[in-house]
Amino acid sequence: MGTSQGELHLIEGYGKDLLSRPIPSDSLSIVLAARSDGAIMARYGLRSRSASYRFTSPSWHPYVLLLHVHLKLGKFLEATAGGRLPLFGVVLLVIAGIGMGQRPG
Prior knowledge:
Radius of gyration: 20 Å
CATH class: Alpha Beta
Distance between the termini: 54 Å
Largest sheet: 4 strands, antiparallel
Structural class: alpha+beta
Strand content: 25-35%
Number of helices: 3
CATH topology: Beta-Lactamase
């Protein structure tokens, strides 16, 4: 995936990973929200992205397939003053843009 790192989890219907790995805390809500109509649920964040898909096995056991991808953008934001430096830059650009839009007069 180039600039990211992903994890694939197979979760039984009772919310436990079959390999006994912890489910990422920021993906727990999407695991619980997985729908049984075949739709893929997705969650996008600055540090990670997740997608879940609920299905039923031939033995009628429900499972959720979770793909959790860690993005390196989150590490960049954490390294730049706790994520506040990029936000400060955006605010500065917005203020500068508003100031340039004013007419003298």
